[in-house]
Write a structure and sequence with these properties.
Helix content is about 80%, strand content about 0%. It is an all-alpha fold. A two-stranded parallel ribbon has the order 1-2. α1 packs across α6 (about 140-175) and α9 packs antiparallel against α14 (about 410-420).
């Protein structure tokens, strides 16, 4: 059975689904640590503890939800029930996360945000992980998948831009910081609800066309989760994707978390520059995505990353040289970081469906949920540790929310955490990209072998 190419409306509506995670996550990445320390009033150590607890819990529930979504049978399919039923609690939690409760004690505030983080990450995973796994189930063509992930990546960056643009407007229109962040949270929750609805409606028909073609597949229903996770490590290509994504994404997220501190404490700029800097990074990334996607249709996926990531490394290293008053240099480096960042959005999730095809050829099962959950599990665990340690470093070096002028030790910590350390992590990801073994030709051989097996 030959299917028509994935239509543009189906690709676009799939991409819209990314907004359900991109807007809330973008706001959290750039502002949550700063919000907890300066608006809520938590100490940097406790704020880092909230982030660590939430991320570790998030990482733990990822494999379970991925495994369960692989086993789900319903009239809506395997992925859609999770997305639909998870969207409402996700939207509610987006508002509660950015609300400051009437609690004065450090322990009480820590308890509130720690417990809320457990709930919001379950809701987020229930929506985002099945959505991400859906990409591998809408097409099995090498270039079509690259195009689909390119659109998803563009919406991911666009979601961050949308969140940052909203922040820029809200910061300018709402004077009280507590109200600023609450308004942002409520808007991001509403966007998540609408995005999930559009994605489900727009991709539903194509999903069932692909499922009809895969009737011969054997679902991994009887294999325990622990055994499935252990077997993933035997896939060499998967190990390379995992390392690439883990190292690069950790670096970028540490930079994002440090950005408000860098702008306010080191550069002595007003809050509006938080969003403007982030918009510069993400704007550069989304503009360059067109070029990277074009290149991806003409070369190997790993080659795109090996070209783009070093650009981010050099610009991240340059951030430590920026002095107060050098705004042009600061914004220029931010644009350079975004140019390379686009390949991080595009490449790993374009590689992963090909890795899943190789796994199906190897063991005869489709395990999209388990594979995507395993990637997100280690990425979130690594990110949690990195952000927790960043919070501890800020605490150890004397950062205080009330101080107008931070101590020299804290300023040096901010400068090292925003540039050189992330540059080292992104550079480490290049080794894994170089070792990625699935070329365009190799994937074509895998697809032909799978088609021969399915046809009997």
């Amino acid at each position: 059975m030959t299917l028509p190419r994935l239509s543009l409306p189906a690709r676009l509506t799939y991409g819209v689904g990314e907004l359900a995670g991109a807007v809330p996550v973008g706001l959290a990445a750039f502002f949550l640590l700063y919000f907890l320390t300066t608006v809520v009033g938590l100490s940097p150590a406790l704020a880092g503890g909230v982030l660590l607890l939430g991320r570790v819990w998030d990482a733990i529930n990822d494999p379970a939800i991925g495994w369960l979504s692989d086993r789900t049978t319903s009239p809506l399919g395997r992925r859609y029930p999770w997305m639909v039923y998870g969207a409402v609690p996700l939207a509610l939690c987006c508002g509660l996360l950015w609300w400051v409760p009437p609690i004065s004690s450090q322990s009480g505030l820590f308890t509130y945000y720690a417990l809320l983080s457990l709930v919001i990450y379950v809701a987020f995973t229930a929506v985002q992980l099945p959505y991400t796994a859906l990409a591998a189930e809408l097409s099995d063509d090498y270039d079509e998948r690259t195009s689909l992930i390119g659109i998803k990546s563009a919406f991911s960056i666009g979601g961050s831009l949308l969140g940052l643009g909203l922040a820029q407007v809200v910061f300018a229109q709402v004077a009280q910081p507590r109200q600023q962040y609450l308004v942002l949270g409520l808007i991001s929750g509403g966007i998540a609800l609408v995005a999930v609805a559009i994605c489900v409606v727009g991709t539903y028909r194509r999903y069932w066309q692909m499922e009809a073609r895969r009737r011969e597949r054997t679902a991994a229903l009887g294999v325990p989760l622990s055994s499935q996770i252990r077997s993933l490590w035997q896939n060499t290509a998967f190990r390379q994707v995992l390392g690439l994504y883990l190292f690069a994404w950790m670096g970028i997220q540490v930079t994002a978390a440090m950005l408000p501190y860098f702008v306010s404490a080191w550069m002595k700029l007003p809050e509006t520059h938080f969003a403007q800097m982030a918009l510069t990074v993400q704007g550069s990334a989304i503009v360059s995505m067109v070029g990277w996607n074009w290149l991806g249709q003409r070369t190997e996926k790993r080659s795109i990353f090996l070209i783009g990531a070093p650009i981010s490394v050099l610009c991240l290293l340059g951030l430590v040289t920026v002095q107060p008053g050098q705004m042009g240099w600061m914004y220029g480096l931010a644009a350079g970081v975004g140019l390379g960042l686009a390949t991080l959005y595009l490449v790993p999730f374009a590689m992963l469906p090909d890795v899943i095809d190789l796994d199906e050829l190897r063991i005869g099962q489709r395990r999209e949920g388990v594979y995507f959950s395993a990637v997100v599990f280690l990425q979130k665990l690594g990110l949690a540790i990195a952000l927790f340690l960043s919070g501890q470093v800020l605490e150890w070096t004397g950062l205080t929310a009330e101080a107008v002028d931070q101590p020299t030790s804290a300023l040096w910590a901010i400068r090292l955490l925003i540039g050189p350390l992330p540059a080292l992590l992104v550079a480490g990801s290049l080794w894994f990209a170089y070792r990625y073994p699935i070329s365009r030709q190799k994937h074509q051989e895998i697809v032909l072998a799978l088609q021969a097996r399915r046809s009997g």
